[in-house]
Design a protein that fits this description.
Oligomer: single chain
Number of strands: 4
Strand order of the largest sheet: 1-2-4-3
Distance between the termini: 13 Å
Order of helices and strands: HHEHEHEEHHH
Number of domains: 1
Strand content: 5-15%
Length: 181
């Protein structure tokens, strides 16, 4: 197994064993089961190259209705969370500039994810902590459709935070670490 395959395998394990098993995203299981998720590893450490990959993935989504969502995994580009936030903001601006605002939405995941004002050790941070820095591109229209049918979707983040804090930091650290084996 080469490095790219390993990174994708670890990401898939994280999605299955953390995101789906902890129900952080109640919509993920269906898309994974239907094999409608694309995984792309961008090995460059250049943020500009990563932004070009974001555009390429938008075009891939444009051309492939069978792909519901893409994980752009960037293991080398933004090891610090602060630099990652800069890249996330640049990606969102790029989507707006290229006419993708309202078509695709970016969800953010990083190994050092930290909610504003939260202590580093807060278990709630693990709702967005991942094995690698990544940008998750989602179809806006699909999100709107599933949220219409979901009871009280505004409660999803609060439920996730409650769940994470009940399980505790050590438990969530263990789950994330297990994805890397």
């Amino acid at each position: 197994m080469n490095n790219t395959e390993l990174i994708i395998e670890q990401t898939k394990k994280w999605i299955t064993d953390v995101v789906i098993a902890c129900n952080f995203c109640p919509f993920a299981a269906k898309e994974v089961k239907q094999n409608r998720v694309c995984y792309l590893v961008e090995l460059s450490d250049d943020p500009g190259t990563c932004l070009q990959s974001v555009l390429q993935e938008c075009r891939r989504l444009d051309d492939n209705a069978g792909i519901e969502t893409t994980f752009l995994i960037m293991p080398n580009a933004v090891p610090s969370f602060e630099k990652y936030l800069d890249l996330l903001a640049a990606a969102e601006k790029l989507l707006e500039k290229k006419g993708y605002e309202g078509i695709y939405q970016v969800a953010s995941f990083h190994p050092l994810y930290l909610f504003a004002g939260a202590p580093e050790t807060d278990a709630a941070n693990y709702t967005n902590r991942s094995p690698y820095p990544m940008l998750h591109l989602l179809r806006e229209e699909s999100i709107e459709k599933v949220l219409e049918k979901y009871p009280d979707p505004d409660q999803i983040p609060e439920r996730n935070i409650r769940f994470a804090r009940e399980k505790g930091t050590a438990y969530l650290q263990m789950l994330l670490a297990a994805c890397m084996k």
